[in-house]
Amino acid sequence: MNMDKEIRKLMPHLCSIRHYIHQNPETAYEEVGTAAIVERELRACNIEVKRIGKTGVVGLLRGKRGGKTVGLRADMDALPIVEQTGLPYASTNGKMHACGHDGHTTTLIGVAHLLAGMRDTFTGNVKFIFQPAEEGDAGGEMMCQAGVMKNPKVDAIFALHDFPDSPVGTIRVSPGPTMAATDGMHITVTGRGGHGARPNFSVDPIVIAARIIEGLQTIVSRELSPTSSAVISVCTINSGSAKNIIPDTVEMSGTVRTLDEKVRLQMREAITRLATGTAASHRGKAKVTFDGGYPVLVNEPGMTAFLREVAGKVIGVRNVLDQEVSMGGEDFSYYL
């Protein structure tokens, strides 16, 4: 098979699919239309198809003889964002493929078409995994719990993420921790409300919250080793309803990003200690809770080296680049 020739033949069809998916985005666990397109395309390639994990789709392509199974995964969900790109295929339903999952899905459909035409040339199996709900709803975890890595057992699995700042024709990949664990942080500060003209009769939770926010920024710089990484960001703060009334409470939330499970636990302990201690020192109270987010994404060194070697043969070694560690999260980590 002339791979370049086959890819060029497929491109108009794949572009049409990608434009349609982009114009009709579906958010977490609503990917009904997208899943139907995926299933249609897989069945057209005579690939075994199974629905799994609510709106997930899995295709199994069997080679000419038994052997190991390689998994290839793409995410299908969009974001609840109003598109303002002005593209002729822009969405109009208040949702948008702003993170490139339309491209991920279409790419894997294209790979399925190509490999289906080569099934008599390789041993083993390829499992095409199209998952819902990567954008914060842990679709990857749900797919794994539903057994996507079994029957047949997946021996190695790969995924990609499009980055618009990467030059066309390049691949970026590195071994070890590559994308961060993502934890949600919620802090409730409780004081005692009163009139803004008589603050001495109140316990001002806004002042306490301000001290906590300032203090949180010293945790990474003063409690964490300079060779480790973490990010603590307070992203919402809500309190009060009148300009002259000191409120009883302040609600804050944010995100904590780490690249190591030990550091992840260290950050939770330090944030809780600082918030409760700061509130107590100002005669108030603080309650701290965390939403367990995605675990750290750790690329296995052997498979990373294998991928770099194969990619180098296809696109040239000079186009296989190192991937900088990202403090963004990815639920592909559940598969690894």
Features:
7 helices, 5-stranded mixed β-sheet, Aminopeptidase, 2 domains, alpha+beta, 33% helix, Alpha-Beta Plaits, elongated, 15 strands, 4-stranded antiparallel β-sheet, 336 residues
Can you give a write-up of this model?
- This protein has 336 residues and is an alpha+beta fold.
- It has two domains: 3-162, Aminopeptidase (3-Layer(aba) Sandwich), CATH 3.40.630.10; 181-291, Alpha-Beta Plaits, CATH 3.30.70.360.
- Helix content is 33%, strand content 24%.
- It has helices at 3-23, 32-44, 101-116, 139-145, 205-223, 261-281, 301-315; strands at 48-52, 56-62, 69-75, 125-131, 156-159, 171-172, 176-179, 181-190, 194-195, 230-238, 245-246, 249-258, 285-291, 297-299, 320-321.
- The strands form five sheets. A five-stranded mixed β-sheet has the order 1-2-4-3-5, with helices on both faces.
- Helix 1 runs antiparallel to helix 3.
